[in-house]
Prior knowledge:
Elements: E1 5-8, E2 18-21, E3 34-39, E4 42-47, E5 54-57, E6 60-63, H1 81-84, E7 96-98, E8 102-106, E9 110-112, E10 115-117, E11 131-132, E12 144-162, E13 178-184, H2 187-191, E14 203-206, E15 214-231, E16 243-244, E17 246-251, E18 260-261, E19 267-270, E20 275-278, E21 281-282, E22 288-292, E23 298-299, E24 305-308, E25 314-323, E26 329-339, E27 392-396, E28 399-408, E29 411-426, E30 429-443, E31 461-464, E32 470-475, E33 484-498, E34 504-519
Pfam families: F5_F8_type_C, He_PIG
GO biological process, one term: carbohydrate metabolic process
InterPro entries: Cadherin-like_sf (IPR015919), FA58C (IPR000421), Galactose-bd-like_sf (IPR008979), Ig-like_fold (IPR013783)
Amino acid sequence: MSSRPTLNSPQKFGEKPSVETCASSGASSNLQKWWVKKVDGGYSLINAITQLPLVVDGSAVAQQDPNHNTATAFKFIGDGVSASTSIPAVFSCSTTVTSPKEVVRVSSEQNDSNEVALATNVLDGNPNTFWHTQWSPSETKHPHQLVVGLAQEAEICAISLTPRQGVSSGAANGQIKDFDLYATTDRTVAAGTNLAAWGEPVLSATLPAGQSVQWVPLKAPITTQYLLLVSKTAQVATQNYTTLGEFSVDMTGEDTLRPVVEKVADVTTDVGTAISVPVKAADASPLAFAASGLPAVSIDEATGVISGTPTAAGVSSVEVTVTDAKGNQATTSFTITVTPKASPSPSVSPSPQPTPTKSPTGKPTKFPTAKPTGKPTVKPEVPRSAPYTIPGSHMINGRTWFTTCEAYSQTERCRTDIWATVVVKTATGFEVRQGWAFNNLTYLPMMTRAQWAGNPLARTGTWTAADGRDWRTECDTAATGGNGCRSYTKATVYAALPKAGGGYRFTQQSQWVFNNIVQFR
């Protein structure tokens, strides 16, 4: 491999970037890799792992959240892109990223009392579910085949493969290394087992190990409806199985789809009381928010959060318009009712002073308090990154995320939701819906381990909460890093398995589900 320079860019302005030499082994084999995307006025550079574009501000350069800072457009000089970069010129080819609509055929999947890990999991929009080829009672050896179908014929230019997620010892099992991709518009070919009928692969690639989403472009766009993924080898050569979390495709063509906007509930508040109302929306491209009828408050054009303090009583009819990068719009309406602030009447006589009890009353609580205690301190500045610690809407790897942050004791807690296909249990059964699903909570590194003392979220162990739910926490592991903890709760997880003749077969099982991460200062 010839040596060429590559850029290492920080994610915070003020820190210095570096240019180093690529190598096939050693420390520099982990240098940052960059995608080149055609934009108006030139090209943007997007980090292949963080999915964040490069932004230049004066003499400073950093990776930044595109919802907060506009990506800088660069121009290549000299002999062109191929001579100026240490990676192939990979162009992001579409703003329309979608999951196929069906699994047409799969050569192997695990489905018994030991584990249910069906191929349909790669289409459910949830990276925490996965397909696993048969491992019990016996293993099915490579190659493994998965055939998926789009809703109709379409021109595609890339695919994205999300490896199985999680922190268990088996989470890395069966990660795909070498694969071929075939395409056809003939359903008979797609449903059959004759590989020769598919012709030559439209793509052959080798993936790196790890849990990051792998975006793989085609050499040229193709028109197809059915795709055959052939997993030929695993990252660990001795493993005879394949796992995969999500499978999505990039479709070319004009984006005519409107953003999906979640209904906002009516708001009631008092004069002089601050409000914060998030407007949640999903689309395959960055969104802009605007609102009319607001009562002396404003909307953040980038995040969609309405905030401010009303100064006068009244009822306001609010309409929010959400616009995507192609100008497609969607609206949602709700009311904000502001009531006069009540004036307290003076009491006739002073209230009596309370008499202290001679001894404590009641039994001590069995579990630590929800929030750590300690003397208030000034919150330190901490690095933030999308989507987990920057408030607002984020579009990353074709998925829409929404994060809100709030004060928590002497730190800050951020909640992240993701737009996904979810199964909901109702009074009459189960339903499959598109909506926001909880992803995780992140406690920022503003408090020391000592300040968290006594809180079960910050020490290794298991416990049962007051509501009867079982919890477990692990700290200082490979999954958490050397200065943090992750907590999981035992929950009932619902799944929808498509039937051959239409409809779904629903299942439910109890399993550990990732809930939050605590980072220490």
